[in-house]
Design goal:
It contains 4 helices and no strands. By secondary structure, the chain is an all-alpha fold.
């Protein structure tokens, strides 16, 4: 049986790909910290500690883009990449969960 075929990522510069990867790492950590979804303080503490280094890496990715003259963020292309990399689910962990219906 063959593994599932995923659609190809849009063409990204190396700096854009780094930006997307670091952004998703930040989302993952913020999702782990979200008090509406968490279960223990230690897990949230570890995620908060990791968030600091992930935020620095995200900043560095943006610095690299800027230094390379990539002055525009191509939102449509980057949004496609985020969707293909499960960004909707990962960003959803940052939001408040829906209230149970009565």
């Amino acid at each position: 049986m063959l593994p599932p075929q995923f659609p190809p990522l849009p063409a990204l510069t190396r700096a854009e790909a780094e930006f997307i990867d670091r952004y998703l790492e930040v989302l993952d950590q913020v999702g782990r910290i979200n008090p509406a979804r968490g279960s223990d303080t230690y897990g949230a503490l570890r995620a908060a500690q990791a968030l600091a280094s992930r935020a620095v890496a995200l900043r560095e990715a943006l610095v690299l883009m800027h230094e390379r003259g990539e002055s525009q963020i191509h939102a449509e292309t980057l949004a496609r990449a985020l969707r293909l990399l499960d960004g909707d689910r990962r960003a959803g962990r940052v939001a408040l969960p829906q209230e149970p219906s009565s």
